[in-house]
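note to self: the first set is below, dont mix up w the second
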Amino acid sequence: MPPRYWADEEQLAFLRSQRNEFLEAQKMKSLTKFWNGLDRLWFEKWPEAGTDAEVSAEEVEKHMQEFGQRIEKRKKVEFLTSVPLSCIHPHYYFSN
């Protein structure tokens, strides 16, 4: 029995059609731009259930900027928590 997908056939066809753009973005190390564009296209075609499909481009852009800021903040926290303390000069922590 084939695996069940979370997306329907039309959505899978859409995602598959984005494969070359994804591979190019991956090669160019610009996946954030790719995902932002894909999200915008996806939610234009298939708005989330229970949301108003009439969302302005300004609202979408504001949401994407806020989302990007949250991601950058999380990256900084993840970086700081992933650096071993032995790599940081002790005076950084113990200076007055």
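second set (the one i keep forgetting abt)
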Amino acid sequence: MKYPLFFHIEKASGTTIHDIFRNNLLFYMVVKPFDDQDIKRAFNAKDIFRLSRFSPRAEGYGGHSIKPYISYGLDDEFQSLTFLREPVSRYISHYFYQKEVMAIDWSIDEFIKDERYSNFMTKRLSGQEDLISAKSILSSFDFVGLVERFDESLLLMRDRLDCVESIGYERRNSRVLRKPKDEFFSEEIMEKIRSVNSLDIELYSYVRDVLYPSYIGSYSGCLDEDLESFSGSNKLYKYPFFRRLLWRAYGFLYGRSLQFILKS
């Protein structure tokens, strides 16, 4: 069996994906996030090797600090995946997260001027604003899901990955907008947002129009029927109580304490 190597892009349902993997794989490890902009603090192959020595039963890794543009030498043991979100929605969600959760008191104009957040998904994948490289990386992945088609993506993910059986989930870390995203800001601001995310928009379109349809085409069941059944049954889904306790204990012991010791 191959285990997941999940590249978590901010504000793209990554917390929920982590929980789904934990629910299937008790020893799935969420790598502690380090400085987003400093490649020296990103997890590298040496870090993964050191973690595997102390936690030999690790059943996959995921997190912000695992970078697709770094070679981990795990191709034979792991399956790579990520989720993308419609770029304008993701960008606005990232802004509100920074403002409301991180308590950074800045305006949308100041956020737009900060180049760290423009074309964020492209840079997360390639390490720079390199659309060709980002597309190539995603093409090599075993799966790329879409937040806007989340339940359907989970069915496709289960069909393509070796390690996932249960895809039931509880929603976490999600911000519900009280009105459509384009009503928060003027059209002038919206155009600026689209402009600073032009590469992300093209990248998302590539996945939506090219990669994602190939997953649908190779799906082993009846996707429409499975989607209707899953979406209905998942509304009241709760993670097993003792399973959640176990994964939290493992996450504290290895996901935080051990990683802090190894990186200090």
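remember for set 2: The chain has one domain: 3-263.
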